[in-house]
Every structure is written in structure tokens, then in C-alpha cells.
Amino acid sequence: MVRLSTVILDKFKKRPRRFLREGFKDSLRVFVQGGAGGNGLPKFGGVGGKGGNVIAVAKENITLEQVYKANASKRYIAPSGRHASHNFILGTPGEDLKFEVPVGVTLITDLGKKLGELNEENEEVVLAKGGTGGHPKNGFLGVKGEAHPVKLDLKLIADIGLVGFPNAGKSTLLKAISHAKPKIAAYPFTTVRPNIGILSYKDLRQISMADLPGLIEGAHKNKGMGHQFLKHVERTKLLLMIVDINGFQLSPQYPHRSCLETVMLLIKELEMYNEELLKKPSMLLINKMDTEGSLACFNEVKEKLKNLKDSFKDYPSEVRPENTLKFCDIIPVSAKERPEDVEYVKNRLRNILDVLADLEQQEKLKENSEMYHNIKQKMKERQPVRV
Ligand SMILES: Nc1nc2c(ncn2[C@@H]2O[C@H](COP(=O)(O)OP(=O)(O)OP(=O)(O)O)[C@@H](O)[C@H]2O)c(=O)[nH]1
Q1: Using 50, 70 and 90 to split pLDDT, how confident is the model at 17?
Q2: Exposed (0-12), middle (13-18) or buried (19+): which is 234, by Cβ within 10 Å?
Q3: CATH T-level assignment (fold) for domain 160-359
Q4: Which of 33, 89, 127, 234 has the most beta carbons within 10 angstroms of its beta carbon?
Q5: One GO term of the cellular component aspect (predicted)?
């Protein structure tokens, strides 16, 4: 009887949701320890070998999931240096232990010290230094290597970060505009991990776009998946916000939000996460413009969207952000029904990114010429005095 009820209970037991089991890993905590230095040999003045360092090396096309699978113990301990001996008066140093991590990882200790950021293929950061070998100054005793846990915090590097509440059409747009194959369904939270799509242009220019899911009203209070994915926006050059012209309602117990309210709420969530995000260049897409009554609705809100800050006063504080994003473009589209809209958006995105790149270049040149000017000035001041 007991067995029977266990079997029945087992059947109805809430199963873990698939996405929770196979979740996208964007952080991993590992333990690193540099090798100990070998002892010296006082009798002959021998010096012990230095311990090996633990080094993280950035690689494209590798995920944190793979890093974890490659070493489930999550311990990286570099070999020690050899002791000095009669035959080898200088102990052989321990080899460095290198392991691969994805490009885009920031390495932080538990005390919050940032050890480095890996943004380019083959870049390296030393996570734990090996100890020095024993020599006269340390009494010929090898020193232990550094040892501490390190958090590998992955922030995707994409040119464009796509944000919107669930069901707005993020996946539909990403699929239409790039080669990505995200899941699409008529219910919220289909996307539970960031998807990256590549926008390819005829002249072979490529732009990456990350669909950042899971954002809902109240995410800053850790509702839903909270701000889990918003950290990825920090590294994008352009924010692409997408909202449904018909507004949004998470579920019947939540209020229905109009299109304008949705835009405000999204800005509010970004602001609550990091107000610096509001300084990013951005573009707003009003989606599902093929649905009934959408044009009338858009004509009604168009001006308000252009002068968003002026509309704030008409809305309660729960909806209203303190500041706003400045949209370079506000474009009505149908991501699902009108490929021409998608093509237009694709070209506008490229134009904005190209302009941004030009500005960045000019800024760099200005900085450089200022730097040269300063150097010249300083050199003049320090010219040797002729007697
Ligand atoms: N009529 C219409 N439906 C659309 C349009 N774009 C998306 N949809 C539909 O809206 C629903 C949600 O689309 P998704 O692309 O999955 O939305 P999402 O924002 O990625 O949703 P999450 O994965 O929950 O974050 C799907 O049923 C789509 O077919 C559009 O332009 N017009």
C-alpha cells in the first residue's frame, strides 16, 4: 500500500522545468591555487623552483557549461616548483596551468576584486600566482601559491541587445533578421536563455544581436528571472527595445499595460538595474502592426513616444521611470508578417552602428592628438638645459 502511494505520489510530483535543469550558465565559481615554490638548499645556496601560475585563456566558441563539464571538480591547482638538490642547484619551476574560458568573461574574487576581463581570443589573465622558490631571503623555504575561489562572470558581447517583455516578438524578430533559430510560441517565457543572431549584409559586414529574455514588470524586485540577463546589455553598443502595440499583460492577476506604459516600464526596469544603461543609444520597435486597430493605436501614441518625458506626469510612479532613453528611431513594424519592415530595421541598425563607430573613431583621434600635444608640451618643459 505504502509502495503504491509512493508510486502515485511520484507520478504527480512537480517535475523540474527543463530550462531550469539545462539552464544557460552565465557564471561559474571555481577554486584556483598556484603551485608552491620548491625549497632551496642552504648548504649549496640552491634556489627552489617557482610554483606554476593558474591562468585563464579566452576562447571563442566555448561555453561555461563546457568549462564545467571539462572539470566538474572546479578545482585548478598548478604544479609546485621542484626543490633544489645536489644535482640541480636551481629547482625546476612548476608549469603554468592554463584553462580555457569563453570570451566575455570577467574574473572576480569572493572579496570583489576584479582580476581581469577577457574580451579577445587568446587573451590571458593570471588567476593565482605560484609561490616563489626558497632562497636566502626567505630562509630557503618555498612560499605557498595564492589560493582563492574565483567567479567567472560571463557577459555576452553583442553589438545589439534586444529587450522587451515576454511575447513582444523578440524571437520572431531575431529569427527574421538573422540566422538564429530561437523558439517561438504564443505564450510568455518561451525564451529562457539569451539567443544570439548574426545580421549579415551584402558587403560581408556582420552585426551580432542578443535576445535577452525574461524581463518582466517588477524584475528589479527579483520577480520572474529578475535582472538575470540584463547584465548582458551592459556590453552592447545599441539597445533595441521591442513592444507589442497592443500592450502587455503577464497573466490575468496582473494589470494590462498599454503600449506606452510598456515602454515606460521597460525603461524603468533598465533604470532600476543600472541607470547608466539609459545613456546608451537605442531604437524602439512597435511590433504587431499587422493586428487589427494597430494603426489607429500607433497614431495615438506616436507623438507621446517622441516626447516621452512630457508624458510621464500623466502616469503613476509605479509605471514611471525617473529618466528616459533617447530613441534614435521609433519604427512601427510587423516582425512576423512584413519582411520589408524587418529589412528596413536591419539597415537602420547598421546605419546607427556605423555612425557610432565613426564617432568613436573621431573621439579616439581627438584623444590621441590631445595626448600627443600633452606629451610634446611635457617634452619641451623637460628639455635638457644648455649651458
Ligand atoms: N500578429 C503578429 N504576431 C506576432 C508578431 N511578432 C510575433 N508575434 C507572435 O507573438 C507571439 C510571441 O512571439 P515571440 O517572438 O515568441 O515573443 P518573445 O518576445 O520572444 O517572447 P519570450 O520568448 O516569451 O520572451 C508568437 O505567437 C508570435 O507568432 C507580429 O509582428 N504580428
Answers
A1: very low
A2: middle
A3: Rossmann fold (3.40.50)
A4: 127
A5: mitochondrion
Ligand 1, atom nearest to 173 Cα: 15
Probe residue for ligand 1, chosen from 165, 184, 241, 262 as the CB with the greatest number of ligand atoms within 8 Å: 184
Name the more confident of 138 and 9. Answer: 138
3-state class (DSSP) for residue 231: helix
Give the integer Cα–Cα distance in Å for 215 and 224.
8
Closest CA to 263 of 219, 305, 226, 295: 305
CATH class of the domain defined by 23-154: mainly beta
Q: What is the pTM of this model?
A: 0.71
From first CA to last CA, the distance across the chain in angstroms is: 108
The span from the CA of 65 to the CA of 24, in Å, is 8
List the domain boundaries for the chain: 23-154, 160-359
Which 3 state secondary structure label does DSSP give 300?
helix
Distance 169 CA to ligand 1 centre (A): 3
Q: Atom 2 of ligand 1 has which residue's CA nearest to it? A: 288
Q: pLDDT at position 189, please?
A: 55
Q: Name the residue at shortest CA distance from atom 11 of ligand 1.
A: 186
Q: Report in angstroms the alpha-carbon separations of 29 from 33, 69, 144, 252, 385.
A: 13, 13, 22, 39, 58
Atom of ligand 1 nearest to the CA of 287: 31
